[in-house]
């Protein structure tokens, strides 16, 4: 996650996503592939994959690659995982377990601010002061060869100078989000030039990273795909370390991006179909269906439950187009009406979001909101009628009962997802990033939790950056769909057949199908026992 003032021009073509564009410190041999995100590894097998009409490169993960971890982590004796938010508990435990299984003599430590209430949670999963695996954050940073800075975005912006000053010479800075680069760019500063700077960014929330790692132990691994970025490579070993980190997390496959591209697509995505848009879609449809005569329970079932319990499951294994192709007769016509009416209004908001992110405005919103937080604490959204009814509907579910697939709901949801995809493609993002940020993360990581605990739970308990964005943009989706899309349908506006044809022929479907082939066989079980805990705001 990152931003620069000139970011819009950076995305003028796919060549902007060549590894580490503009970074002169990288010292590894140039890859020979012509893939849009070509990279080289002497340790892991790099695969060429055809995503639609472009060739890209990935590294497939798997527990069978753990014997290669000692070489990938060569020179790393101590890893400091700083923070205990969404990603840190999952990543620290996965790294610790994978490195131990690989026979690596590498100590994984947790670093927390003095007096943090998270000390006890870290102790509960095996980190401790007595074992020298838990301590004050700056003490841990000073000892670490790899500093994985997983504190909140706002904290990174506030503490980056102290973090850089505490790092020992030759240490590598590891990130799981490009937000810090975005902040530094916005104030005209840079990372210190004498360090490697890498990122491994799982395309899902932290608890899903841990749960799938645990649930995939018997099938050569399962997890959350990750992008990786090498922003600075002073040592010449940064790519191998980043790939090793991703393998150790349990990522099924890894693709290269840049910190700038990651920031832009990630911050944009969580304001869109990952969180903000689905929040707005459900609110608007819930009201619409009641106006049409449904009971509150039925309206929630036909809107939210239809998305989180049916539509996304089809997309997860068969792709977006399979939802459409599975409809017949009147249902297909209803889908087309909803899709045709919703695509352009949704795209209008999504383009605005992308422009706000890429211009730097959205990151400033997050920073300013953080400065107001002590005076205006963030409240919860789960008290309104929509989400209270949702609690009742979830409590009344019958085991193994699949919610109905409402074709109107499907048309609105898929129109918004496709609009999000098209904005990213038009900005030059590669298919690997587009599909992971707009489809896989939505259906394989976030939607299962939404179905289990509710959309409101996800909004109330996500990261500060995501929460800020969802609350800001969800009402915009709600209003524009209600005011433009649904009125168009109600007024009998004809289906825009050009939009339907464009949907049917969109090349992203081929890319999604390729990603489905790479999907692990394990579905996340959000209700099973796990050593990870979802952070719950009381």
Distinctive features:
538 residues, alpha/beta, 10-stranded mixed beta sheet, disordered N terminus
Please give the structural blueprint.
Layout: H1 7-10, E1 47-51, E2 54-60, H2 69-72, E3 78-82, H3 87-101, E4 107-112, H4 118-124, E5 134-136, H5 137-143, E6 146-149, H6 153-166, E7 172-175, H7 179-186, E8 196-202, H8 206-215, E9 226-232, H9 238-249, E10 253-256, H10 259-271, H11 276-291, H12 296-318, H13 320-325, H14 329-359, H15 361-372, H16 385-395, H17 407-426, H18 431-453, H19 455-461, H20 464-490, H21 497-505, H22 508-517
Parallel strand pairs: 3-4, 3-6, 4-5, 6-7, 7-8, 9-10
Antiparallel strand pairs: 1-2, 2-10, 8-9
The whole-number mean of residue pLDDT values reads 89
Q: How much of the residues is beta strand, in percent?
A: 5-15%
Shape descriptor reads globular
Assign the structural class, choosing from mainly alpha, mainly beta, alpha/beta, alpha+beta, or little secondary structure: alpha/beta
Instruction: Specify Rg, calculated over alpha carbons.
Output: 22 Å
Strand order in the largest sheet = 1-2-10-9-8-7-6-3-4-5
Q: Can you count the beta strands?
A: 10
Number of helices, counting only DSSP H or I runs of 4 residues or more: 22
Q: End-to-end distance, in Å?
A: 29 Å
What kind of sheet is the major sheet?
Answer: 10 strands, mixed
Low-confidence stretches: 1-30
Level of helix content? 40-55%
């Amino acid at each position: 996650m990152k931003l620069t003032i000139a970011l819009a021009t950076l995305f003028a073509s796919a060549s902007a996503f060549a590894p580490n564009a503009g970074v002169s410190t990288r010292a590894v041999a140039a890859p020979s592939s012509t893939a849009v995100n070509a990279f080289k590894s002497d340790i892991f097998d790099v695969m060429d994959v055809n995503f639609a009409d472009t060739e890209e490169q990935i590294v497939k993960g798997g527990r069978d690659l753990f014997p290669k971890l000692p070489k990938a982590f060569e020179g790393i004796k101590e890893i400091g995982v700083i923070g205990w938010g969404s990603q840190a508990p999952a990543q620290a435990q996965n790294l610790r377990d994978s490195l131990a299984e690989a026979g690596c003599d590498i100590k994984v430590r947790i670093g927390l601010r003095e007096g943090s209430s998270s000390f006890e949670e870290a102790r509960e999963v095996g980190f401790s002061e007595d074992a020298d695996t838990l301590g004050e954050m700056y003490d841990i940073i000073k000892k670490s060869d790899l500093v994985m800075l997983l504190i909140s975005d706002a904290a990174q912006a506030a503490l980056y100078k102290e973090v850089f000053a505490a790092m020992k010479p030759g240490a590598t800075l590891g990130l799981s989000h490009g937000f810090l680069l975005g902040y530094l760019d916005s104030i005209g500063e840079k990372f210190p030039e004498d360090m490697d700077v890498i990122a491994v960014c799982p395309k899902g929330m932290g608890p899903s990273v841990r749960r799938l790692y645990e649930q995939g132990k018997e099938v050569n691994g399962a997890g959350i795909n990750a992008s990786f970025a090498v922003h600075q490579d002073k040592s010449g070993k940064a790519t191998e370390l980043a790939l090793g980190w991703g393998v150790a997390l349990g990522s099924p496959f890894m693709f290269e991006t840049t910190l700038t591209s990651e920031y832009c697509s990630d911050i944009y995505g969580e304001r869109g179909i990952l969180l903000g848009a689905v929040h707005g879609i459900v609110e608007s449809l819930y009201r619409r269906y009641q106006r049409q005569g449904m009971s509150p329970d039925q309206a929630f079932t036909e809107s939210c439950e239809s998305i989180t319990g049916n539509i996304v499951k089809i997309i997860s294994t068969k792709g977006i187009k399979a939802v459409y192709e599975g409809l017949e007769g009147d249902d297909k016509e209803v889908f087309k009406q909803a899709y045709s009416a919703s695509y352009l209004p949704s795209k209008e908001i999504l383009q605005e979001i992308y422009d706000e992110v890429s211009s730097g405005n959205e990151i400033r919103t997050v920073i300013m909101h953080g400065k107001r937080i002590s005076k205006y604490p963030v409240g919860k959204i789960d008290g309104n009628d929509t989400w209270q009814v949702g609690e009742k509907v979830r409590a009344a579910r019958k085991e193994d009962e699949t919610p109905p697939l409402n074709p109107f709901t499907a048309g609105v949801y898929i129109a918004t997802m496709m609009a999000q995809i098209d904005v990213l493609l038009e900005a030059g993002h590669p298919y690997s990033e587009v599909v992971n940020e707009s489809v896989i993360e939505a259906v394989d990581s976030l939607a299962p939790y939404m179905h289990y605990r509710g959309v409101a739970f996800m909004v109330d308990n996500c990261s500060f950056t995501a929460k800020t964005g969802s609350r800001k943009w969800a009402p915009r989706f709600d209003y524009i769909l209600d005011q433009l899309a649904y009125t168009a349908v109600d007024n009998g506006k004809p289906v825009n057949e050009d939009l339907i044809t464009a949907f049917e022929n969109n090349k992203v479907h081929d890319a999604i199908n390729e990603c489905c082939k790479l999907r692990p066989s394990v579905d996340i079980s959000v209700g099973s026992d796990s050593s990870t805990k979802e952070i719950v705001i009381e």
